[in-house]
Design a protein that fits this description.
The structure is a single chain. The protein has 274 residues and is an all-alpha fold. The protein has two domains: 38-138; 143-267, Serine Threonine Protein Phosphatase 5, Tetratricopeptide repeat, CATH 1.25.40. It has nine helices and no strands.
């Protein structure tokens, strides 16, 4: 009995140490995220401005092309009339011809100017796109070890961004993966699948939800809610609980599956000190 109490105390100390480290990591992630978000917002705003310029310039091209076609048509008509009329008319049309040539020259210059602006805007968009990709690549979350080889980074990003519903769906996907190929094929979890889950991977999922939600969500939070709801509860018959806890994790699995997962975690002393 004394040895078991000492073991539980050691686990409690280790758990508190891990939570403190995770909280420090979270603070650092939040600071970096704020800086990165500010940079991305600034770059995104400039990119949107140039994209609007490109759209405006592109909308001018049809009008300029129509003007060029019209001016060329007028030029052709004037040239034809010059050959068919007398000297006085020729002088008059030559004047018109000169004016038309001047207008055509201006139209060509405007076309070249707009073409240059369009190329510059496209070049700037490419630069901004590259900058955004570079900034995003600077911030890479460390890869957490998984017994089943799953990647937790997508879930961690969603939790950092507090996208709880999307994180809930990603958690369901991860639970299928850490349960084995049978669960993935079926697209659902039964008692055998839950028993086959990697306990260490479940711990990682619980720790991330607990830390990034400030203890509001996660298996530990659900365990406390159900424990307070029924002081003398038994997870071996989860259908008897008759209560769906508030918060996330996991709406897709239902109360029965949640009870089985909590039972599994409880057997492995995950909730000691919670």
């Amino acid at each position: 009995m004394w040895a078991r109490g000492q073991s539980q105390q050691e686990q409690l100390t280790q758990s508190h140490s891990q939570r403190e480290q995770l909280q420090r990591d979270l603070d650092m992630v939040s600071q970096e995220k704020s800086k990165l978000q500010h940079d991305l917002d600034s770059v995104g705003g400039e990119k949107s401005y140039f994209q609007e310029q490109v759209l405006q310039l592109q909308s001018e091209f049809p009008r300029l092309n129509e003007e060029r076609v019209q001016l060329r048509s007028e030029l052709s008509q004037i040239q034809t009339r010059i050959s068919q009329n007398n000297e006085e008319q020729q002088l008059h049309f030559q004047k018109q011809l000169s004016q038309t040539k001047g207008q055509l020259k201006l139209a060509n210059q405007e076309h070249l100017r707009l073409q240059s602006q369009l190329e510059e805007a496209n070049r700037r968009i490419c630069q901004l796109t590259s900058l955004i990709e570079t900034e995003q690549s600077k911030w890479q979350l460390p890869e957490r070890k998984s017994e089943r080889g799953v990647d937790f980074r997508q879930l961690e990003w969603l939790l950092i961004l507090k996208s709880w519903e999307e994180a809930d769906r990603e958690t369901w996907t991860l639970l299928l993966k850490i349960s084995g190929s049978s669960a993935i094929t079926k697209g659902l979890l039964d008692r055998d699948d839950i028993e086959n889950m990697s306990i260490n991977d479940l711990k990682v999922i619980n720790e991330m939800w607990t830390v990034y939600s400030s203890c509001q969500y996660g298996f530990s939070s659900q365990w406390k809610i159900l424990k307070n709801k029924r002081k003398a509860m038994s997870f071996e018959k989860p259908s008897d609980i008759g209560y769906y806890p508030a918060g996330y994790i996991l709406r897709a699995i239902g109360i029965n599956g949640l009870g089985l997962i909590l039972t599994k975690l409880e057997r492995h002393n995950v909730f000691i000190g919670s």
